[in-house]
Sequence to fold (253 residues):
Amino acid sequence: MPAVPPARLRRLALASLCAASALALTACGPLGQTAEASRPSSPSGPYPGLSGSEILNKAITATKSATSLRLRFATETTEDGPIGGDLAVDTEGDCAGTLQMGTEGGVEILKTGDTVYLRFDEKMLRSQAEGEEETRAALDLLLGKWVREKADAADAEDFAEFCDLDSYLEGFQADDTAAKRAGESTVGGAPTVVLKEDHQGEKATAHVAAKGTPHLLRLQVTGGDEPMDMTFSEFDEPVPVEKPAAQDIVDLD
Fold:
């Protein structure tokens, strides 16, 4: 198997998530969390009587209570190029989706139980192989195929950690004091309340569902070194994990 650097992929992607989750994400260094007072509560519209920080804290609590969700994220720039992902994950550790690591290429990932399936695109296989002969061998063996590994195997462990929903949400703390109401909008057709915070040249924006459960639906960061856009959806829905067909699986043990 090519020496694909999953640890670096995970580091880059989670660093991007930290940047995007700056609103009340204390584990990454918050953008707000100051004694600045929130904009007064709105007397009408969604969440009447609640301030921006009160709405955000409700959203954090609701989102952390989800048993599953779909997470899409994209950075405009990092030192390794654009980073992105589209993953459905749950609290049982199952997941399905894709990860893109800048100029290095991408990988599809499925995890069910204690087994991880990885399918690398041609760009990733070529970027990790050394020399023409190794590249040809890697493409012949792995292109279009799923690599099957135990989740705790050295080659798969870091990828498997992408499938831990708690790792994405554990840093969110429902103690924001700085978010301010900034009108209303929509995300994926769903009406939202918009909340904003500014800090040291970075502008963070959160969209909270205006109807039903007050989930976080979108987080954006502009300015700073790593602009980021992240959306949450499909709360509490089953993760669509389908085991690949036997003929499409390669075991490297």
Notes: DSSP finds six helices and twelve strands in the chain. The longest helix spans residues 6-20. The chain has one domain: 6-242. Confidence is low (pLDDT under 50) at residues 1-12, 19-39.
